[in-house]
N-acetyl-gamma-glutamyl-phosphate reductase (Flavilitoribacter nigricans), 318 residues
Amino acid sequence: MIQAGIIGGGGYTAGELIRILTYHPEVELAFVHSKSQAGNPIHSIHTDLLGEVNLDFTDTVDFGVDVIFLCMGHGQSKTFLESHEIPEELVVIDLSHDYRLNPDFIYGLPEMNREEIRKSRRIANCGCFATAIQLGLLPLAKAGLLQDEVHVTAITGSTGAGQSPGATTHFSWRNNNISVYKAFKHQHLAEILRSLTQLQPDFTDKVNFIPVRGDFARGIFASIYTDCALSGSELQALYEEYYQDAPFTIVTEQNPNVKQVVNTNKCIVHVEEHDGKAFIISTIDNLLKGASGQAVENMNLVFGFPQTAGLQLKASVF
């Protein structure tokens, strides 16, 4: 049994992480830090945890635990770590983008860096868009088959924008609406490109990424295509072989949909061949496989627990 703490406990990813760790068979959740909510019951913010979690938020941090998860806003993790003396043996898993390109942190994508994660004490969790897109492309990159530009359109639910309300996140704007943002310039492109070139060093083409705001709460659905000479059956075999030891990434011959992954830690990948192009669909829950669930996968790997521990699938959402 290990002890865990959460820094920045008020947001969506922290709420999911609290739920997962509360029921994890190998973890005791020692504290959830939040300056703004200190002294208040956790269920006063994360209301779905009423009757399940009896902890209060705290404004103190205990570095005597085994692992801390940083669930603060982008930019705040770096400030926190630089302003505190962090024990070397303490495992730090950061869910922000602050350390994803930092060589002192292992990039927390188990489907690519499983063995490196096992040996690390500092892990930078992947971005949600980056997770879905990379899981759609890793098998091609590993086989050296990315030979041209990659085209991606991916739609995300409103929870991907965080809990603080904004002009493009409140219900009356988002409902029955759709829009593009940060076309070709999304911040997750940097980590995507680094992973692809890690597996295929000669890849120098562009990844053209169009992010789309969807009118639903959670989930990411990425559609991807690029030139490829493999047949449909060869692509299917390539993807199945690459993910044969990945417990949460499922390669299917069926056309997937977002409802299959919402409230689970699954990524479902589908691949087809069309006139010399590989067409890939990759779909995840942005708060689980794209954030808190993947963070727990990384923790499990570090401490030698089964990768699936605490991440059993939830009931059907239909």
Q: What stands out?
A: The two ends are 35 Å apart (CA to CA). The chain has two domains: 2-126+289-303, 128-286.
